[in-house]
Structure formats: structure tokens, C-alpha cells
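Check out a protein:
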Amino acid sequence: MYAHLPDLRAVQRRRKYVVAACLIPLLGLVGATGSSWAAEATVREIIEGVGLLMIGVAIVGRAWCSLYIGGRKTHELVQDGPYALTRNPLYVFSFVGAFGVGAQTGSLTLAVVFTVAAIAVFLPVIRREEAFLASAFPDSFPAYVQRTPRLMPDFRLWRPSEALVVHPAFFLRTLADGLPFLLAWPLFELVAHWQDSGLAPLLRLP
């Protein structure tokens, strides 16, 4: 089992590089476009407020997942808690966070674009990680795949853990990894202020 560990870590490192590379065009898109709703419009405030709430859900949800998987992923197949509902809850919460980040522009279109970009980036990573799990846990992983959806949670499958061994370092690292989602709030507020000053040509999106 442990012989596969370097492969999994390599996949996770590539994931970070790809995410960083995709952020550049997405930020460029945010700079070149804007919400079709006026800054003071109620609809825009609702979109941004819901987006901020979803960012909070993503950060808390990812931290919740880390309580179950911290230090266990390469040694045992985690199948309880959020991992009983979906095989990839960390990524599901990341998609929620991506929507929330895009929503900070006040545009639902950009929120969807950010979500689709996150899915496009992470889906190949999910496949590679599941290939690792299938190789590392050949006896239990096929049954887990059969009963547990890859992404869309099935709340009927909820199964709590009898006990949790908390790894503070992993928990804090996962929490810190989610905090950059919050940077979208002040960053996109600055972009909107810059755009409203008339210094940038915009494609307005609903």
C-alpha cells in the first residue's frame, strides 16, 4: 500500500499547480467583465451575499471533512461521516466555494463559470486519486464505489463515525487551504470599484 503514496502526493502537487495556472485567466476574466446589475441593486447584493455564505460553507465543510480523513487517506478507506454521502466531499465543498467566489462579482454567469472551471480542473484529479484508492484497497473500494456517489451527496447514506482521531496539523492545514476563498470578497470589491470608475471596458454579464 505505501508504495503508492508518492504517486498520490505527486497528483496532489500537480493539482495545486493546475489550480494556480487556471486562476490567472479567471482573474483576467473578472477584470474584463462585470455584473449587469448596478452596484446598489438588490439582486446583486443577494447574489454576493449568497456567495459569501457559500464560501463560509465551503471553508467549514472542508474542515469538517478533514476531521474524518486526517492522516487516514493513505492507510485506510474512509467511508463514514461526509465520506458516506459522497466519495469526494472535499471537492464538493471546493465546488461550492468556487461558486461563492464567482458570485462575489455579482454575476451568476461568472459564478457558474468559476464552478465549471473548478470541476474541469478537479475531475481528472479525482479520477487519479480514485485509481490510487482502487489499487490500494482492492477488496473494499469496489463496494464503496457501488453504493456511494462520486460527487452528488446522497444523504440517505449518512453513517457517523463511532470515534474520531483528530490530527490538528491536518485540520489546520485544510482550514488554511480554504481561507483564500475569502480573499475573493475584498479583491473583487476592489475590482468592482475600479470598473465603476470607468477605467476599464466591460462586458456586462447577468
Notes: Confidence is low (pLDDT under 50) at residues 1-6. The first helix runs from residue 5 to 32. The beta strands are 33-35, 203-205. The chain has eight helices and two strands.
